[in-house]
Design brief:
The complex is a heterotrimer. Chain B is mostly helical. Chain B has helices at about 5-35, 40-50, 55-65, 75-85, 100-135, 140-150, 155-170, 190-230, 230-240, 245-280, 285-295, 300-325, 330-335. Helices cover about 70% and strands about 0% of the residues of chain C. The longest helix of chain C has about 35 residues, at about 90-125. Classes of the chains: A alpha/beta, B mainly alpha, C mainly alpha.
Chain lengths: ~575, ~350, ~300
């Protein structure tokens, strides 16, 4: 008997502008002990499906047709009180964004306790206590975590608490809605493996909702692909990934860049490099730059110089907290270094005259992570393009400003007539980020700092935007610092890679060496943690994940940077 | 319960002391900046009012000493601060030679009593109603009827006091018009006295309650709507918890936190409102004392009452701040403002 | 924080879409306030305002259609009656009601300007300046303005209307300062301000062209709240017998009515009409504030 049968499920959201069909005739089922993945982009109806199974659809959404059967229960016909009792006991839900899923004013063990007591009535204190301890142990959390408050836990620990909660009553079905979307890859691997272990332990069915084909390949047996509320493909995971039938699935699979293999950039160097002959002084230099925040070192002393004669893309790779974004803001002069100097064409960024600063701003531009925040909601989006263009003295007439904006939009694949006179909220994240790239193109700086430019953009658009950024170097001769957590894209776009770990460069060199054949344990761990969309490439079990981390801890922290080679035009020195 | 972080505690103590010091200093500086000399006003009034005061010279001396008009300013200031610390505000000129502190000590319990009754109760009623207004399982009546009544909550207590006084006391004669207890009862712990106090206190308290509960209710409603969208409430529902339990332990418990902070900020205005209500009901508290002092141009009493009320406010805020870490674990561990 | 910002952005979003400025609460609230202003303007044009000062009429005359305890009937020369010293009530409110609104608006305007200046200074300069502004506004916000002002005015004696507004303004800058400081600090981190810096924008440009437009809904809300606080404080002072002594104000009229025992003598028009006008003024302000809230936070529009 299947744990869940969904038949012809349709969900509608009536809105002021007509009914939105969030889900149309969706059917699938999942048996106990099996894992089913539901993959799709934002707005594809995957979370709506999960909430419908829990019967927790937010109003005004409602089920307009079909049936949901949870083993013997007809979910849609159940009285509210019985449905409440079925939640967690029969079907549990691990929500997205573990950061905020726990009640901030309750100790975490009490948040397990209230669930048990609600469903099973008063239980003896000792029994309760051991049960909760066992649950924590089951997800690899130490005992003392129970008496902490949520804000004292890391994101990974919070998500484990949610998993412990999800399985504590041995449900038949667990629904995990993007359980790792807020976590970095190393933690993601551990949490996913914990989830798989406990699910197998109780023999429940698991529905994993996500947008990452790689994560699916490493986690599920069967895959449902949703697009705009319609099932486009359903089948065995291996079959769907290796031999996708629907073009959308193919696109999803192809959008995940692999280390090695073909470059998603297509044929580069169609146009020869635009060399910018320069006189003597390097474009950007770090002289023993060091940054600490109140005694905590964010960045260990480092020096580099980017010559800028020929455009280069230098990738700075690391997890959150590695100091990579700090490096970016130091380069932009937003964040003065604690020690050392940042030189732009030989001039200290910290001590610039207004005219020099104007020249620095004109020549050093950036693309930030969050395309939603980059536009002032008060203005139409063209303000972000025309304002700096005039400010930096490129504008000769209004018509010329318009022409330049149109040209830049077309260069990044946007239709200027549709886009430029809109307000930011009327555009998608991908459109906004491409506009920011268009802005950089219009201003034609010498250097661009791209800080996680695609991490908040839907997967299918990532390659396009990276291609746009790559073109800035390739066609327009702009040097780029590409700051990212994503090793695969860094592998393809960069000329040189620095891996940052706790504010220190642990490995540096050309991408083929550093990412293709990592030497430092941290780089190795990062590579091993990437969920490859390749069913044959095993992620390893819980123990391997733990072993890899132990190996990193065992390795000498003060080990020198592993240098893997140089590229002309860029020189790196680490240490004082 | 965890300990309150020292930095947080220190921060609050410093704020308390600063508040009291700034208030005391303002009260000291203002008369000295005045184009009119308060001592002149008082002396003039006394001379006019009581033609032949036997100890006029003595009063003049007292006044001069009070205002320390002969000392250099710094000395005056230091003396003043020293006196304030021991609650010595000098002598009342209207009821000479009573100590100002004695008058205040007599009035203070009434004010504090009324405040506990009205301001504190209002906070609880208002928040409970606000929570019910936003809860999706409340009876429709609560959600629809209250916002209409809410309109009246924009009115300051002094106006509602006048209306209630007119309807319930002057017209219907259900309650006494003025005073804190009947003229015929002897103050003391007797049933008759307590009854009289409750009877007299009801209207002043009611006039504060009916116009301030809405402020809390509206605020709470907004917060509840925000909390309803939080992930932890979604998870609580997914846990199959009972709706009422979710309401108390997940929603109200979190939504109340900003309200407590708001309470600390609002105390000052609430106390000021109460002072005015006491004045129109001629309630024997600080408000009436202040009003009488203004009528009599009794400057030492005005200064003393203002200072003590500000001190009371500052201490209440301090107490709320002390309680806060016990309801919000995030403050307890992070230490102070983040 | 991000959630909050999202809500805020959504506020603007919806505003553009369906123009929530067409909001019944905002409409009625603004209507009430404008009616009070109109009362002042039309009254000044058509009514003899000297009647508010002379006291030449019979004492305690009731409004037209009513009878007082002495059996006198209201007369059309004093359509809403006279007070205890024979002053015409209509003339009193024609002068008094706009005056109360004027004090509130002026005090709030000055307080807001101070708040904007201090809030931006704290948020932008940071460091020591920020510390001082933050601590002082934290401290001052707990001090009830009424009590300091009682001391001020009993020391000063008579004050003019403008002077009273200025004095009140000295106590209503704290909450806008705190609000703007917090907003500026969070906006400083926002992507669009960073983008503006990258675009070589001056600090002035960032403050007034990038940040201020987004603060408008908050500023409006804070402004209205401050008008209410200022009027309440002014009326409070007047009811305590302070404030302007020579100009009729609503609070002073109530003060005289209470002192003369108008409540026991059933002279309801004497205290009741000014009370009613003040009540309408506060309801108007509340409605405007609720309306503005709904404009900037669409989620509240559920009811």
């Amino acid at each position: 008997m299947n744990a869940l049968n969904v038949t012809d499920l349709s969900i509608d959201f009536p809105t002021a502008r007509g009914v939105v069909h969030a889900l149309t005739d969706l059917s699938f089922s999942v048996a106990r002990g099996r894992r089913l993945g539901i993959i799709g982009e934002s707005g594809s109806g995957k979370t709506t499906t999960a909430l419908a199974v829990m019967r927790m659809l937010a109003s005004p959404g409602f089920v307009s047709g079909g049936s949901i059967r949870l083993a013997d229960l007809n979910v849609l016909a159940l009285p509210e009180e019985e449905m409440r009792r079925a939640r967690l006991r029969r079907v549990s839900y691990i929500p997205q964004g573990a950061m905020n899923s726990l009640n901030p004013v309750m100790r975490v063990k009490d948040q397990l306790k209230d669930a048990i007591v609600t469903h099973e009535g008063r239980t003896e204190r000792e029994v309760l206590r051991t049960r909760i301890e066992d649950a924590f142990a089951g997800v690899g959390l130490p005992e003392h975590v129970g008496s902490l408050y949520p804000h004292e836990l890391s994101g990974g620990m919070k998500q484990r608490v949610c998993i412990a909660l999800g399985v504590i009553l041995n449900p038949e079905l667990i629904i995990a809605d993007e359980p790792t979307s807020a976590l970095d890859v190393v933690t993601q691997r551990q949490v996913m493996q914990t989830l798989k272990d406990v699910q197998q332990g109780i023999g429940a069915a698991l529905i994993l909702i996500g947008h990452d084909m790689g994560l699916m390949a490493q986690s599920v047996d069967e895959l449902v692909v949703l697009k705009d509320g319609i099932l486009v493909e359903h089948g065995d995971m291996r079959r769907v990934i290796v031999n996708p039938r629907h073009p959308y699935t193919r696109e999803l699979v192809a959008s995940v860049p692999l280390v090695g293999g073909e470059s998603f950039l297509g044929n580069s160097s169609v146009v020869p490099d635009v060399a910018r002959p320069r006189e003597g002084l390097p474009l950007l230099e770090f002289e023993n730059v060091h940054k600490d925040y109140g005694g905590i070192t964010a960045l260990h002393p480092m020096s580099f110089s980017l010559c800028g004669d020929e455009p280069r893309i230098i990738s700075i790779v690391g997890q959150s907290g590695s100091g990579k974004s700090t490096m970016g803001s130091i380069m932009l002069g937003f964040n003065p270094p604690s020690k050392g100097r940042v030189l732009f064409e030989g001039q200290d960024v910290a001590g610039m005259s207004p005219l020099q600063l104007w020249d620095f701003r004109k020549n050093v531009q950036a693309v930030f992570q969050d395309p939603y925040a980059c536009f002032n909601p008060f203005y139409r989006v063209d303000h972000a393009l025309s304002f700096p263009f005039r400010r930096f003295g490129y504008a000769t007439s209004d018509a010329q400003v318009q022409d330049s904006m149109h040209e830049a939009c077309r260069a990044v694949g946007l239709d200027p007539a549709l886009i430029l006179r809109r307000y930011p909220h009327e555009l998608s994240g991908g459109q906004r980020q491409r506009l920011i790239v268009a802005r950089a193109l219009m201003l034609n700086p010498k250097l661009l700092i791209a800080d996680e430019p695609v991490s908040m953009v839907d997967a299918s658009l990532r390659a396009t935007i990276l291609k746009n950024i790559y073109d800035l170097k390739d066609r327009h001769g702009i040097s780029i610092f590409y700051i990212t957590h994503d090793l695969a894209t860094a592998y393809h776009v960069s000329d040189f890679v620095m891996v940052l770990y706790k504010g220190q460069v642990v490995e540096a060199g050309p991408p083929k060496e550093v990412i293709g054949d990592p030497q430092h344990p941290y780089t190795q761990l990062l590579i091993a943690s990437i969920p490859w969309p390749d069913p044959d490439r095993d992620w390893g079990g819980t123990t391997t994940a733990a072993e890899d981390i132990a190996a990193l801890d065992a390795s000498d922290r003060d080990a020198l940077t592993v240098f893997r080679g140089d590229v002309p035009g860029f020189r790196l020195d680490v240490g004082a | 319960m965890g300990r309150i972080p020292r930095s947080y505690l220190l921060n609050r103590v410093v704020t308390l002391l600063l508040t009291v010091w700034i208030a005391a200093t303002l009260i000291w500086i203002i008369p000295r900046l005045s184009p009119v000399d308060p001592a002149d006003i008082m002396l003039g009034r006394m001379a006019a009012g009581a033609g032949a005061v036997e100890n006029a010279d003595q009063i003049l001396e007292r006044l001069k000493a009070n205002f320390g008009l002969n000392d250099p300013l710094v000395v005056q200031y230091v003396k003043y601060i020293r006196n304030v610390v021991i609650f010595d505000f000098g002598l009342s000129t209207a009821t000479f030679p009573t100590q100002v502190s004695t008058l205040i000590a007599r009035a203070l319990p009434w004010t504090v009593g009324l405040m506990l009754l009205s301001v504190v109760i209002t906070f609880f009623i208002g928040n409970a109603l606000g929570a019910l207004m936003a809860w999706d399982r409340s009876p429709k009546l609560v959600r629809v009827a209250i916002p209409a009544a809410m309109v009246f909550t924009s009115i300051p207590p002094i106006l509602s006091g006048l209306l209630l006084m007119w309807i319930l006391a002057a017209k219907l004669r259900w309650f006494p018009l003025t005073g804190a207890y009947g003229l015929t009862v002897e103050p003391g712990w007797t049933w008759g006295f307590v009854q009289s106090v409750i009877h007299h206190g009801f209207l002043p308290a009611l006039s504060i309650v009916i116009v301030t509960f809405g402020f809390w209710a509206l605020g709470m409603r907004g917060l509840m709507i925000t909390v309803q969208g939080e992930d932890y409430v979604t998870l609580a529902k997914a846990k199959g918890l009972r709706p009422r339990y979710i309401l108390y332990r997940y929603m109200i418990r979190n939504a109340i936190l900003p309200q407590i902070t708001a309470f600390a900020l609002k105390i000052g205005l609430l106390v000021a409102g109460q002072v005015l209500v006491e004045r129109i009901f001629a309630y024997n508290g600080m408000g009436k004392l202040l009003y009488d002092a203004i009528l009599d141009q009794d400057f030492p009493v005005i200064q003393g009452v203002s200072f003590v009320i500000i001190l009371m406010t500052a201490v209440s805020v301090f107490l709320v701040d002390l309680v806060y870490p016990f309801v919000d674990p995030r403050v307890r561990h992070d230490g102070g403002e983040a | 924080m991000t959630g909050h910002r999202a809500g805020e952005i959504k506020g603007w979003r919806l505003r553009r879409f369906e123009s929530p400025w067409v909001n019944p609460k905002l409409f009625w609230g603004a209507g009430l306030l404008l009616a009070i202003v109109a009362l002042g303007i039309i009254g000044r044009a058509f009514w003899n305002l000297d009647l508010a000062f002379t006291g030449a009429a019979p004492l305690k005359l009731p409004p037209v259609g009513f009878e007082n305890l002495r059996g006198q009937e209201g007369a059309w020369i004093h359509p809403i009656g006279t007070d205890g010293s024979g002053r015409d009530m209509l003339a009193l409110i024609v002068i008094g009601a706009p005056n109360s609104l004027f004090v509130g608006l002026l005090a709030s305007l000055i307080g807001m300007s101070l708040g904007i200046f201090l809030g931006f200074s704290a948020g932008f300069i940071g460091g020591r300046t920020d510390d001082v502004i933050r601590v002082v506004s934290d401290v001052m916000i707990t001090i009830p303005p009424l009590l300091i002002l009682v001391v001020v005015q009993s020391a000063w004696g008579d004050v003019s209307l403008t002077m009273m507004a200025l004095l009140i303004a000295g106590f209503v800058w704290q909450s806008p300062t705190r609000l703007i400081r917090a907003q500026v600090l969070s906006m400083k981190q926002s992507g669009y301000v960073q983008m503006a810096r990258l675009s070589g924008a001056s600090t002035m440009h960032i403050m007034f062209r990038e940040m201020l437009p987004n603060l408008v809904p908050y500023l409006f809300g804070s402004f209205i709240a401050n008008v209410t606080t200022s009027i309440v404080t002014a009326v409070g002072l007047e009811v305590l017998g302070l404030g302007p002594q020579r100009i009729p104000t609503l609070g002073r009229t109530i003060y005289e009515a209470i002192n003369a025992g108008a409540l026991i003598q059933n002279l309801w028009w004497w205290w009741g009409i000014p009370t009613l006008l003040l009540g309408l003024m506060f309801i108007g302000l509340l409605l405007v504030n609720l309306g503005l809230d709904e404009v900037s936070n669409p989620r509240l529009r559920k009811l």
